[in-house]
Amino acid sequence: MAVTKTWDIVAMDSAPTEGSLSNVVKTIHWNCTGTETVGSDTYSSYSYGCIGLAAADSSSFTEFASITKDNAIAWAKAAIGTDGVTDIETGLEAKITEQKTPSIETKTLPWT
Question: C-alpha angle 49/83/43, rounded to 5°?
Answer without folding.
Answer: 60
